[in-house]
Amino acid sequence: MTLDKNLIAEAAAWRRDFHRYPELLFDVDRTAARVADLLCSFGCDEVATGIGRSGVVAVIRGKTAPACRTIGIRADMDALPILEATGLPYASSSEGKMHACGHDGHTAILLGAVKHFAATRAFPGTLIAIFQPAEEGGGGAKVMAEDGLFERFGIEEVYALHNLPGMDIGTFALSRGVMLAASDRFDIKILGKGGHAAWPHETIDPIPIATYLVSALQTIVSRNVDPVDPVVLSITSIHAGDAYNVIPSEVALKGTVRTLSNASRDQVESRIRAIASSVATAFGAAAELDYRRGYPPTVNHPVQARFLGDAAARVVGDPAVQREMTPVMGAEDFSYMLQARPGAFIFMGNGMTAPLHHPAYDFNDDAIPVGIALWIDLMTRERN
After folding, report:
1. What are the b/e assignments for 163-184, b being 16+ CB within 10 Å?
2. Which of 2, 66, 199, 376 has the fewest beta carbons closer than 10 A?
3. pLDDT tens digits, residue range 128-158?
4. Interatomic CA distance for residues 219 and 181, integer angstroms
């Protein structure tokens, strides 16, 4: 597919503008306003703002049958609280914020596809372009769905892409089932009895209890979970005390759990509760657990995964499309949209760039025409 060079150049310029002005979570006022202004200038049939607090939705109706087919395509708009270290001319102008996950590129790609469709109308049915806030931890997809996104716009299927460093430009990867993990967080507080470090026998020292607990929690993955069902349990923070000669009264631990199945998700949470309580009790202490479930697993629907994989293959050639990729233990709130409607999620190569969520990361503009072509093909082709 040959795309208009002017459209590709425009999309790259939009992308770099978004990159220069990153915004976090739902506070994407400038980005959303810029997206809405562009959509209106394209001549979309409808542009709605404030969906799911700060999301933007555009409606573009095609001129060929079947007119009843209504497809949603999502792009995320928010950035991350990371200090950028790229040194690029269009680097972040907001210290401590940067587009370190490529959402600037995802937004520019969908805008490019919308501009093409608004001008040509050469596709069957209706395109609903969804520009979502707060993918990075805010669950913006869930908030948009709860705000009536799918019912209001009559969306029948929904799709999304995400760039992936380490994959060559012009390659794609997806699966017919689970793509990404559920992401949960937990805090454990071990409550002991503090005192002078010279008289440890008069205390209930929570620090050695914490070390036993960390080791015990690792047995959940190695001894409780089916070894062919991937699970990650990581303790990512331990904090206790501030002095050399004082045994603290409590220790605080933080961690994350990543699972691909609901059965393992339930099992791991149950075992964390049991182990934390029993280990603390064995040493005469107590444990408090705050376990918070985050995004569910991202699970593609097989039929829609085939449609999306076929579109990718027509754009880059079948050998460049991995159709049964190994699931990734990262998480993605597009999972909520896939719970609401059939659809699929696909990874698109970003080349050999810095990894996602890294201060030196930058979306590769060479991927823009590949992404635009994917959405054009997906919307244009009749379904078999």
Report:
1. bbbebebbbbbbbbebbbbbbb
2. 2
3. 999 999 999 999 999 999 999 999 999 999 9
4. 20
Interatomic CA distance for residues 265 and 325, integer angstroms: 22
pLDDT, mean over the chain: 97
Complete domains list, the chain, with CATH: 5-180+297-380 (3.40.630.10), 182-293 (3.30.70.360)
Pick the closest to residue 368 from 11, 13, 31 (CA basis).
11
Place of tokens 């159709």: 323
Q: How far apart are CA 131 and CA 133, in angstroms?
A: 7
**What are the tokens at 97?**
């914020």
Closest by Cα among 45, 293, 315 to 170: 315
Q: CB within 8 A of 153, min separation 6: which ones?
A: 57, 59, 70, 72, 128
Q: What is the pLDDT of residue 178?
A: 97
The length of the chain is 384
The pair of structure tokens assigned to 315 is 């754009």
pTM: 0.94
Look at the block and give the residue holding tokens 């062919």. 228
Strands 157-164 and 343-349: parallel
Distance separating alpha carbons of residues 321 and 336, to the nearest angstrom: 25
Name the H helices within the chain: 5-20, 29-42, 103-120, 140-146, 149-152, 206-219, 262-282, 302-316, 334-340, 368-380
269 CB-side CA count, 13 A: 17
Distance CA 283, CA 288 (A): 15
CA 141 remoteness from chain centre: 10
Largest CA distance in the chain: 83
What would the pLDDT profile of 303-327 be if each residue is shown by its tens digit?
999 999 999 999 999 999 999 999 9
Dist. CA 239–CA 152, nearest whole Å: 47
Closest by Cα among 53, 262, 237 to 145: 53
